[in-house]
Amino acid sequence: QPDARHAPLAQIPPGIACARDYELLCEHFIPAPTLAYLAGGAGHDRTRDANLAAFDDWTIWPRLLRDVTHGHTRLALAGAELSHPFLLAPVAFQKLVHPGAETETARAAAALGACLVASTLSSAPLEDIATANADGRRWFQLYFQPERAATQALARRAEAAGYEALVVTLDAAIRLPSLSALRAGFVMPADCAAGNLQTLAASAEAFPAAPPGQSRIFQGAMRAAPGWADLDWLRSETRLPVWVKGVLHPDDAADCRARGIAGVIVSNHGGRALDGAPASLAALPGVRAAVGADYPLLFDGGIRSGGDAFKALALGANAVLVGRLQVWALSVAGALGVAHVLKLLREELEACMAQAGCATLADIGPHCLAAAHEPL
Ligand code: FNR
């Protein structure tokens, strides 16, 4: 029985009052099994849910009588000037929710001045995404391939297509399927196969196979997982700065800095990697402390509002990435929806900054927050 849903709209729907409203609306646009796949975390969704709950551990001090009329949300990040601190996180297989897939997202990113991080597992080829992104800022999220030549080929293509950094995601060597997606009977459609890769078909997120009698984890998935030598090799191979995504432990972050990694993204893959890992927000202060004040540090996991972004910035992030919200908006209204969600997030952040007495991102710090469960 086909699951009847609305086709994506060609306009921003009425009645959207905040960025998170797209989460409510997208149920009418995404078939239930697909929604289960996109929304799901790994295992029992503990880390996915913890990502959201962690924002409730902090409250924001309102501050009075400050002049913020010269305020703005600009920042310098990795040598680039950005007008606001929202990036679009790499999210695979966007054709699942819109026929234009990542080219829609890329257009929205360029229009709203948001840096786009395109996934290795995009439905559209990275060159098409670059064309749609035009003179926007874009980074390429790189998954190490089983063969170095294939990894190198992806890096070369990203360089040629105007991507300004490589973001190596390291927390997803083992892809445990979402239990809710399994229970909902989700199957990746054949036409959503990874547009950048010939060998990796639509089953990219499925559990790996292993030779008979061997562990599907240790001799299967982990055999292809990269190590420090591979990261060092990649850095020597490319002229682009190399970032690492998926850092939670402070020691891993410090190692990245010491080994010449350009910056790290505190992330647990939106709760889709190790179920039971700390919430991203809970890990953030320790990572900032480990790398020092001047090291580029991005954050993702559970950002649903400008106020959430404020808390992440206060706890040490230079900027934040938006994962699922981007997909919900894409499903509802394509590029317009993604642009709208970025605009709403920025306005929500500005309102939060103004009420907290912060005129610029540099004014936002731990002093702006109070722990919710401790006496003030
Ligand atoms: C992801 N994420 C992800 N990360 C990555 O490095 N490469 C990828 O291909 C994908 N694919 C992907 C697909 C889907 C459906 C989701 C929900 C997430 C993780 C993503 O970049 C980001 O870390 C999280 O989505 C952030 O959490 P929120 O914003 O979704 O709560």
From TrEMBL:
MF-aspect GO terms: FMN binding; oxidoreductase activity
Domain of life assignment: Bacteria
Record key words, sorted: Flavoprotein, FMN, Oxidoreductase
Record-annotated FMN hydroxy acid dehydrogenase domain positions: 11-374
Any one GO cellular component localisation term in the record: cytoplasm
Residues annotated as binding FMN: 90-92, 119, 141, 169, 245, 267, 300-304, 323-324
Entry cofactors: FMN
Active site: H269
The protein's Enzyme Commission number: 1.-.-.-
Entry binding sites for glyoxylate: Y37, Y143, H269, R272
Similarity comment: family membership: Belongs to the FMN-dependent alpha-hydroxy acid dehydrogenase family.
Protein name (database record): Alpha-hydroxy acid oxidase
